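Request: Not sure, any thoughts?
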Amino acid sequence: MSDVLLDLERSSRIGFDEAIYSAGKTPAQIETILGLAIEAGTPRLFTRLTAEKFAALRPDYSAHLDYDPHSGTAMYGRHGKEDGPIRIAIVLAGTSDTSVGGEIYRTLEYYGHESLQITDVGVAGLWRLLDRLDELRKMDVLIVAAGMEGALPSVVGGLVPGVVIAVPTSVGYGVSEGGRVALNSALASCAPGIVTVNIDNGYGAACAALRIAGVARKHRAVVV
């Protein structure tokens, strides 16, 4: 008897479906979940799927997946393109944040949302961010990922009118404490209205952006 029970109604409740957090799951459990998704004819997003675990899947299962080892994400199918009014940017402090950025990008891509990607604009070279400011001010949602002292979300939050979602990352030495300093920095930010998700939680940040996009779609429908 299977110990897996997919939540097939989640999309109708909250606007996006159940992602499969693959850390802690065995290859056999992942195969079972994928098999149920194939049987139900529903797309499915897998997160935190390591290259080793993906390689351990039987070929008749792994062949169904669009896998990206850098972000640790895999897609079985995907949702149709969204032509809504929300413009989303992914802003990364450094190239060490790109695995988290990839999880954000791939989650948005899975749901049909395009996003502007801006990498390596950390505050140690502030001119790099200022050079992109005109682009950033056009964005409705900015997902900003940074480790070390985690200052970038606060700086962005003080420069743009869009919704800023801070993603503290586990990048950094010693007292950075695996992202805790960046998390506390985001929570203590003096830039008002910044939304903060957990350390390295690119998927959660993308879902926050999806909720904002869902509200915008409803508002547009009412106005029309």
